[in-house]
Amino acid sequence: MSQNVESAVYLEPELASQLNFRWQELLKCVRSQQWDIYQPSLRDPESPAWSLLFDEQEPSLKVEDQQLMTMVVTLGHSDTARINATPGTMASRGSQYFWLSKDSYDFFPPLTILNERGRKPTYSCLIKLYYADLDQVRESRVTFEAGNNVDFRLGTGAYRGTGKAKPEDLAAISRISEDLYEIRIVAQGTRAYQAIGLHATSFVGARGKRIGYLTNERFEQIVGIRLRAPAEFGD
């Protein structure tokens, strides 16, 4: 009742008739039970009862250490065309995304936002993304194209027109907490590129795009940096 637990039972009409089954009687019995009903007070927002309601107060989820990973993905022309385009030109128009793997579910928060425009369904979530190359924090949308390519896209609008990434460079996306992430571009030909690129072991599509994961701790060691702490993202 509190956790939206659902079950389904199918009864053949003949069997239901033999059992003298009546839906009205079942519902009557359910409602007449001595339910333990507790009314939480608005004066106590920390009451456990409020966490039982999906739309009342969203709990702060704790990400386990093994989930603090860095995604490494190679970038292609479609990822970087608007990044290298001159601002204001036709080439710079349109949404700036990095295309990711279809298998990116566990790396992002729950996709609870259903699109309101278009006929094909998409599911999204919003994250805070720190652009290490630009030293700025932006809200970013992660979108799953459920009715189209069935893949993930990460909005990276802050990179548009900056020239910060080229085809074959690597994007390293580090998960800091449930909805806080850090991104940086690792340029092709650098020592870090060679070491990080070894972890991108799975191919995405048919154009050589690769993706993979390593722990945040290992990523920090290879690149020689310290990832941003949650408190540094601000409110």
Q: What is the topological layout?
A:
Layout: H1 13-18, H2 23-32, E1 69-74, H3 77-84, E2 97-99, E3 113-114, E4 123-131, E5 136-144, E6 152-155, E7 170-175, E8 180-186, H4 191-197, E9 202-204, E10 209-215, H5 216-223
Parallel strand pairs: 4-8
Antiparallel strand pairs: 1-7, 1-10, 2-6, 3-4, 4-5, 5-6, 7-8, 9-10
Walk me through the structure.
This protein is of the alpha+beta class and 235 residues long. Helix content is 17%, strand content 24%. The protein has five helices and ten strands; from the N terminus they run H-H-E-H-E-E-E-E-E-E-E-H-E-E-H. Strands 1, 2, 3, 4, 5, 6, 7, 8, 9 and 10 form a ten-stranded mixed sheet that branches. The longest helix is centred in the N-terminal third of the chain and has 10 residues. It is elongated, with a radius of gyration of 24 Å.
Gap between N and C termini, in Å?
35 Å
Q: What's the total number of strands?
A: 10
Class by alpha and beta content: alpha+beta
Integer-rounded radius of gyration: 24 Å
Helix content: 10-25%
Largest sheet, in brief, is: 10 strands, mixed
Task: Sum up the overall morphology in one term.
Answer: elongated
How many alpha or pi helices?
Answer: 5
Q: Give start-end ranges of low-pLDDT stretches.
A: none
β-strand percent reads 15-25%
Q: Average pLDDT across residues?
A: 87
Q: What is the ordering of alpha helices and beta strands?
A: HHEHEEEEEEEHEEH
Key structural traits:
ten-stranded mixed sheet; 235 residues; elongated; alpha+beta; single chain
